[in-house]
Please model this.
Amino acid sequence: MAFRRLPTSRILEVERKFRSFAVPKLTQYGGLPHFKSLQKLPIRIIRDSYYDKSNLLSSAGVWIRKRDDRWEAKVKKGGSFTNSRFEELTHVDDISACIKRITGIDDREARNFGLDPIAIFSTTRETWIADDEFHIVLDTMDFGHQVGEVELQKVLAGEPTEHQKQNEVQLMDERVASFMETYAWAFSPGQPTGKLTAYFERERRKTT
Model:
């Protein structure tokens, strides 16, 4: 069941991907400088189904997924693949309006908003909260791929302008970059491969 309409707010998210940990085990005192704090959360198993229509949404920088029976839309607000900035939509009405604006499709949630499934997989997620606000995530997919992210979220009340959103995600991105530079001992260098990219590469290999 997706979330229904609540008092208006906007969720902004900035994430920077990393290939793997550079240490055998992530701990508060595993390198210098130490994390100010590090809390490990329970491991989660997540089932994701991604949807699109003739690549119209992904081409516009929008990803629609159903995560454990909850609909989510991630709308790109700049950045790159490794360094991503998003607005996250969790209300069905907002998701439907976003899909209609880009594709022209106006369909019901019960019919997957008129979209087609493009990827389905499960993820084992390990999560740590560092320095009380930065989420460090390591995802291992059921097809064997692994990728990590450092994430920072902020909730904006009301209806912020696009300029305000862009300013906020820029500041958030700078903070994530500074965090990863400070604790560079924790993260392996190298270009990470995202879960959807790895999934589609695997599917292509199966057909060749």
Observations:
- Residues 66 and 196 are 14 Å apart (CA to CA).
- The radius of gyration is 18 Å.
- The chain has one domain: 9-206.
